[in-house]
């Protein structure tokens, strides 16, 4: 009785010791089975015997699965290159690049910004010509039939002109209190991918509002002409940098033109220098003296960042009536921005660039400067179409940027 009482008082073994006990019994049974196999030729069933590998060579490993690779738009195996019937050369920017200025070289090897083998046009480093797909020069050869083809396509899409009442309704629908749809045209101007954005907006509305700010607004006539030429639309209203672009009566969104998208921005080619060591017609000492005097001249105006600069050209022309040197303060602007502005002034005024030092644009009217006549003074003042049909001549200085944005220039006396 004392032994039984002593055993009953003992605590039960822990679970871990129980597992060890079962494992020991299993091993003893395994050893027993092995004895049975040795002495009595007993063979266990296949379910109990360990499976031998099929591969006799244990050193070789299984082939690992390839790593997951997400689908890419660059994989075009078995697909034909995209074809577009648009009758113009594809460029990154249509307002900030000119076919008349030929680059002197390329910064990087030529590669297509549309992706490899995605377009049936060859990229020359500057554009993708619409005529010769195998052109090797930097500029595509001009085809006289392209202009006629472009004109016929635009007339077919536009149809009959709008009446004054129809135009007034479309312009009212594009105001800020009616819609938030807007395309912003910035320092790069009218880019190629922006054409696709315009057609996407035309799916939902007959007209789209475009807001223009920055460097391209120096030459708003070029912006308007390029918009109408590349989209086959028509600008039915303009107030300073705000445009309303109409798609046309016969426009069909299901038959929109094929516009291949640029997947990255191409490298800009190398162009000739804007500022030469010596100005044409002057000696080295005269050039140095003119640059010193130009930086000391009172500033004609101070440009704001991402402003509206359409009044800059007439201001410089008016200043040349009394001064031979004009300085424009560009502090705060990107270096590439005020260089582009200086290049536009050189071609539009016209004038001679003196220096870009200290974030200033200094231009000279030249020795053989002839002041414009009275009729030519107002030739650069643009006329804006009123929605009701009456044209009103507006001075660019009186055009404050609608839509609650600051004007693009300030008076130099405010400094």
Automatic annotation (TrEMBL):
GO terms, biological process: Group II intron splicing; mRNA processing
Composition bias type Low complexity, residue spans: 395-406
GO cellular component terms, semicolon-separated: ribonucleoprotein complex
Biased composition (Basic and acidic residues): 76-88
SMART domains recorded: CRS1_YhbY (SM01103)
Renumbered residue ranges of the record's region Disordered: 32-90, 380-415
Domain CRM, first and last residues per copy: 160-258, 280-376
GO MF annotation terms: RNA binding
Coiled coil: none
Record keywords, A-Z: mRNA processing, mRNA splicing, Repeat, Ribonucleoprotein, RNA-binding, Transit peptide
Compositional bias per record (Pro residues), positions renumbered to this chain: 43-56
Protein name: JHL05D22.2 protein
């Amino acid at each position: 009785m004392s032994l039984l009482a002593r055993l009953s008082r003992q605590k039960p073994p822990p679970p871990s010791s129980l597992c060890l006990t079962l494992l020991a019994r299993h091993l003893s049974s395994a050893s027993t089975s092995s004895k049975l196999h040795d002495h009595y030729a007993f063979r266990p069933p296949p379910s109990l015997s360990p499976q031998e590998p099929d591969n006799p060579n244990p050193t070789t490993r299984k082939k690992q699965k390839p790593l997951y690779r997400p689908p890419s738009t660059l994989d075009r195996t078995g697909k034909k290159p995209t074809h577009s019937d648009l009758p113009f050369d594809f460029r990154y920017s249509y307002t900030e690049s000119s076919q008349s200025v030929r680059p002197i070289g390329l910064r990087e090897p030529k590669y297509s910004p549309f992706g490899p083998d995605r377009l049936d046009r060859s990229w020359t480093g500057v554009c993708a010509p619409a005529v010769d797909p195998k052109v090797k020069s930097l500029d595509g050869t001009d085809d006289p039939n392209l202009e006629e083809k472009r004109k016929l396509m635009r007339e077919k899409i536009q149809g009959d002109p709008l009446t004054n009442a129809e135009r007034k309704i479309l312009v009212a629908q594009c105001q800020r209190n009616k819609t938030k749809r807007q395309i912003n045209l910035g320092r790069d101007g009218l880019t190629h991918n922006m054409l696709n954005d315009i057609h996407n907006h035309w799916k939902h509305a007959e007209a789209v509002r475009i807001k223009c700010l920055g460097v391209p607004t120096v030459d708003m006539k070029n912006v308007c002409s390029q918009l109408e030429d590349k989209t086959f639309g028509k600008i039915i209203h303009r107030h300073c940098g705000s445009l309303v672009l109409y798609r046309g009566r016969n426009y069909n969104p299901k038959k929109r033109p094929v516009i291949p998208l640029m997947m990255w921005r191409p490298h800009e080619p190398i162009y000739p220098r804007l500022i030469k060591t010596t100005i044409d017609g002057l000696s080295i000492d005269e050039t140095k003296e003119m640059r010193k005097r130009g930086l000391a001249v009172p500033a004609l105006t101070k440009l704001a960042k991402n402003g509206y600069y359409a009044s800059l050209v007439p201001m410089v022309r008016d200043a040349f009536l009394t001064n031979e040197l004009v300085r424009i303060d560009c502090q705060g602007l990107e270096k590439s921005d005020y260089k582009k502005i200086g290049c536009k002034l050189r071609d539009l005024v016209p004038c001679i660039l003196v220096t870009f030092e200290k974030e200033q644009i200094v231009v000279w009217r030249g020795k053989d400067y002839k002041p414009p006549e009275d009729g030519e003074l107002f030739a650069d003042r643009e006329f804006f179409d009123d929605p009701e049909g009456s044209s009103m001549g507006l001075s660019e200085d009186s055009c404050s940027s609608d839509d609650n944005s600051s004007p693009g220039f300030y008076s130099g006396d405010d400094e």
